[in-house]
């Protein structure tokens, strides 16, 4: 692996009879935005806590720059937990300075960095406020500042966009792009898949503690089943349901959306549509990340052998 790559290598974690993680593996490369997505309880937060050393894995290893994560490495990681990890009665500036000093910055460096991130994240008017008196969105901004104030060389962010208004989402998106442009590996989880699709270089999908897909959005959506949008205004309900290798995803007044297996014959679909009357649209369509995610997390037949890999 290249230098400064964060590697999650076959980590597993059990709680009694419950398998939280089952040989989870992926890597986050320097300068890369990696989106880590899955349903609630899929294992995202457990993976991130193991990467930080907050939890111990039962097996497997987390490495950075080719070496196992240790205390020194952890001081170089910027971590943003999903649950607020701030001192509620502490003022914003004081808190950021304190956290920066905990990571080894001098008093002057800590103050300089804290002030820079307060300004960058639009918190100047709130710098003297207690965290508990801030809106949830501003608390989220402070939490991001806390992850960035010590100049981390890796960023691990758990639901960083949760609770943010559109303007704050734009600011945070830009900050993450900037950090990646500096060569920092950035991994974040999010349920906002449109943001993941727009921001991320690669995506990993986890389901029930197992990675079911990893790759670029293009790779994942290209490898997904072919979809056809068919406009046949006079077609009766279920007109394509019996065609071999064809699954009807939706049918309404605007047309029919079909999913085709590799063995399906699109010309047979066209002929069936023409048999119902005029065809106003017949086009291939690539599924969105949201659609791919829904398919991946709801498909009980998914297996490691069927994973997409970058």
Main features:
single chain; 310 residues; alpha/beta; Rossmann fold; Alpha-Beta Plaits; 2 domains; six-stranded mixed sheet; four-stranded antiparallel sheet; 10 helices; 32% helix
The termini sit apart by: 14 Å
Q: Give the overall average pLDDT.
A: 89
Order of strands in the sheet with the most strands?
6-7-8-3-9-10
Number of domains: 2
**Main sheet summary:** 6 strands, mixed
What does the radius of gyration come to? 23 Å
Task: Report the portion of residues in β strands.
Answer: 25-35%
Number of DSSP helical runs: 10
So, CATH architecture of the largest domain? Answer: 3-Layer(aba) Sandwich
- The dominant shape is elongated
Q: Return residue spans where pLDDT drops below 50 for at least 5 consecutive residues.
A: 300-310
Structural class by sheet pairing and helices: alpha/beta
The percent of residues in helical segments reads 25-40%
The fold-level CATH name of the largest domain is Rossmann fold
CATH superfamily of the largest domain: P-loop containing nucleotide triphosphate hydrolases
String of helices and strands: EEEHEEHEHHHEHEHEEHEEEHEH
CATH class of the largest domain: Alpha Beta
The total beta strand count reads: 14
Lay out the secondary structure.
Blueprint: E1 6-15, E2 18-28, E3 33-37, H1 44-52, E4 59-64, E5 67-68, H2 71-74, E6 77-80, H3 92-102, H4 107-120, H5 136-148, E7 154-158, H6 166-181, E8 186-189, H7 193-199, E9 202-207, E10 210-215, H8 217-223, E11 226-231, E12 246-252, E13 255-260, H9 266-274, E14 281-285, H10 289-298
Parallel strand pairs: 3-8, 3-9, 6-7, 7-8
Antiparallel strand pairs: 1-2, 1-4, 4-5, 9-10, 11-13, 11-14, 12-13
Helix pairs in contact: 3-4
């Amino acid at each position: 692996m290249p230098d400064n790559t964060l590697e999650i290598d076959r980590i597993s974690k059990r709680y009694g009879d419950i398998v939280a993680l089952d040989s989870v593996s992926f890597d986050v490369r320097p300068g890369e935005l990696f989106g880590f997505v899955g349903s609630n309880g899929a294992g995202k937060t457990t993976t991130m806590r193991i990467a930080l050393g907050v939890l111990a894995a039962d097996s497997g290893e987390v490495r950075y720059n080719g070496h196992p994560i240790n205390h020194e490495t952890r001081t170089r990681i910027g971590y943003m937990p999903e649950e607020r990890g701030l001192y509620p009665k502490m003022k914003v500036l004081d808190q950021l300075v304190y956290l920066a000093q905990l990571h080894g910055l001098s008093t002057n460096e800590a103050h300089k960095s804290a002030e820079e991130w307060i300004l960058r994240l639009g918190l100047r008017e709130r710098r003297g406020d207690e965290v508990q008196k801030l809106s949830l969105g501003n608390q989220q901004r402070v939490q991001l500042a806390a992850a960035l104030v010590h100049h981390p060389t890796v960023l691990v962010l758990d639901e960083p966009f949760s609770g943010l208004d559109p303007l704050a989402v734009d600011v945070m998106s830009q900050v993450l792009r900037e950090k990646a442009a500096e060569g920092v590996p950035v991994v974040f989880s999010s349920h906002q898949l449109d943001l993941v699709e727009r921001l991320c270089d690669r995506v990993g999908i986890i389901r029930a503690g197992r990675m079911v897909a990893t790759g670029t959005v293009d790779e994942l959506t290209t490898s997904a089943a072919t979809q056809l949008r068919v406009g046949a205004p006079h077609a009766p309900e279920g007109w394509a349901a019996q065609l071999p290798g064809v699954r009807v995803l939706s049918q309404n007044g605007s047309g029919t959306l079909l999913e085709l297996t590799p063995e399906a014959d699109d010309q047979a679909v066209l002929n069936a549509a023409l048999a119902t009357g005029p065809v106003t649209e017949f086009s291939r369509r690539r599924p969105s990340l949201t659609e791919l995610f829904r398919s991946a997390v709801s498909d009980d037949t998914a297996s490691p052998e069927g994973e997409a890999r970058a």
